[in-house]
Amino acid sequence: MMCSSERVSIAIAIACMSFLSGAISGAIATVPELGSSRVVFQTNYGDIEFGFYPSVAPKTVAHIFKLVRLGCYNTNHFFRVDKGFVAQVADVTGGRTAPMNEVQRLEAEKTIVGEFSDVKHVRGILSMGRYSDPDSAQSSFSILLGDAPHLDGQYAIFGKVTKGDETLRKLEQVPTRTEGIFVMPTERITILSTYYYDTEVETCEEDRLILKRRLAASAVEIEKQRMKCFP
User: Which residues form the PPIase cyclophilin-type domain (predicted)?
Assistant: First the structure.
C-alpha cells in the first residue's frame, strides 16, 4: 500500500502534467499557419520578407495585400524605430515621397475593423497601427523587434517576418531621437520598392524543373542503351 505522502506526490505530479499539457496545447493553438503569399519590402538597409495570417485577420490581410499589389508602400518609410520594441511603417497617405493615384488613395483611406486575436506580440510579428478607435487601422503597421505582451489583444496581428532579421537588426542600430512617445530615426529609412510572390507557385515551378531534368537524364540513359544494344 502507498503511504499518504506518496499519494500526495503522485497527485501533484498528475496536476503538474495536466497543467503543462494545457499550457502547451494553448501555446500551439495560438501559433497560426502562414498563407502562401509573401511580400518583400526592399529598403535602403536591406530586404524584409513577410507572410500573412489569413485565418487570423482576413480583412486586414486582404487590405494590406491589396495596398502592396497597388504599389502603395513604394517610396514610403519607417517613421519609428524603437530598439527592442517596434519598427513602424508610416501611413502611406502621408509617408510616401511619390504622389498617389486615385485608385491607391481610395484603398489607402479605407479603415479596417479591429481583428484582435490571442496571437502573441513577439519579435517578427506584424501588428496594425491605429488610433484610440479600435476600428481605425488603415495602412500603418509595426514589425515587432521584441516581445510586447502589453499589446496582446489590443492590436490586430496579421502576419510575421519570414526573412530579413539581419535587416531589422541594422534598423535597430540607426541613430534615433525622441518626440513625445515616439522613438524616431534621425535619417529616413525608405521602402524603395516592393514585390510579392506565392510560395506554392514557386514550389510547383521548382518541381517542374526537377521533373524536366529527370526526364532529360532518362532520355540520355535510354539513348545510351539503344546505342549499346542496337548499334
Answer: 40-196
